[in-house]
Specification:
There is one protein chain. With 72 residues, this protein is mainly α. The protein has helices at residues 11-16, 24-35, 46-56, 64-68. The longest helix is centred in the middle third of the chain and has 12 residues, at 24-35. The radius of gyration is 18 Å and the shape is elongated.
Length: 72
Amino acid sequence: MTDLVPPSLDYAALVKDPLARLSLADFVKGWRMIVGEPPSVMLDDRSEMIRHLLESVPSAVLDLAAALHVAE
C-alpha cells in the first residue's frame, strides 16, 4: 500500500488543512495557474490562503439578458 501522506503530517493536520497533502511545488504551481504569479507569502494553512484569495476577488454580476441573448 502506498501512503500519500508525508510521515510528518498526522490526521489532525490533514483534517485542518486538506491541501497539506500537496507538495509545496505542486501547491505553488496550482496557485500560479490561478493567480498568474507565485504566492508572495506562504501561510502554514494552505486552505486559509485559498480562503483569502477567494475573499479578495469580487464576485461577478450575472447579466441574465446578456447570458440568454434577450433583447431589451
